[in-house]
């Protein structure tokens, strides 16, 4: 029986997350979610199960409401780096979810690295 696109995505997402757990060493996880219209990112402490900081294209303060392109992804990456630094977080593990590390996801990661996050 053939698997649906959603089931294949879920398998990729869990495979990436399980691999990250091996190398996390107590570092928080920088999790990316991408939809057709928006991009959001969270820094999550998996030990306590809490979101430490987040950024999204749904926030009016960033000026990219409803945009889903590389420029918006770069602004979100810079914003999450700034917020993570303010929360005292310098090192994270990058959880790309089931998405390819290409295009918008790569632009977000590069901007977060330029902002000072290490992963």
Automatic annotation (TrEMBL):
Gene3D superfamilies: 3.30.420.100. Coiled coil: none annotated. GO terms for biological process: translation. GO terms for molecular function: 5S rRNA binding; structural constituent of ribosome. SUPFAM superfamilies: Translational machinery components (SSF53137). Keywords: Ribonucleoprotein, Ribosomal protein, RNA-binding, rRNA-binding. The keyword Mitochondrion does not apply. CDD domains: Ribosomal_L18_L5e. One of its GO terms (cellular component) is cytosolic large ribosomal subunit. InterPro entries: Ribosomal_L18, Ribosomal_uL18_bac-type, Ribosomal_uL18_bac/plant/anim. Pfam families: Ribosomal_L18p. This is one of the proteins that bind and probably mediate the attachment of the 5S RNA into the large ribosomal subunit, where it forms part of the central protuberance. Belongs to the universal ribosomal protein uL18 family. Part of the 50S ribosomal subunit; part of the 5S rRNA/L5/L18/L25 subcomplex. Contacts the 5S and 23S rRNAs. This is Large ribosomal subunit protein uL18.
């Amino acid at each position: 029986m053939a698997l649906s696109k959603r089931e294949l995505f879920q398998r990729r997402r869990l495979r990436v997350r399980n691999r990250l757990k091996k190398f996390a060493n107590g570092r928080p996880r920088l999790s990316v979610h991408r939809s057709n219209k928006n991009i959001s990112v969270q820094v999550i402490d998996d030990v306590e199960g809490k979101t430490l900081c987040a950024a999204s294209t749904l926030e009016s303060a960033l000026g990219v409401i409803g945009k889903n392109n590389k420029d918006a992804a770069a602004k979100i990456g810079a914003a999450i780096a700034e917020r993570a630094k303010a929360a005292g977080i310098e090192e994270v593990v990058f959880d790309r979810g089931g998405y390819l590390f290409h295009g918008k996801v790569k632009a977000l990661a590069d901007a977060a690295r330029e902002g000072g996050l290490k992963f």
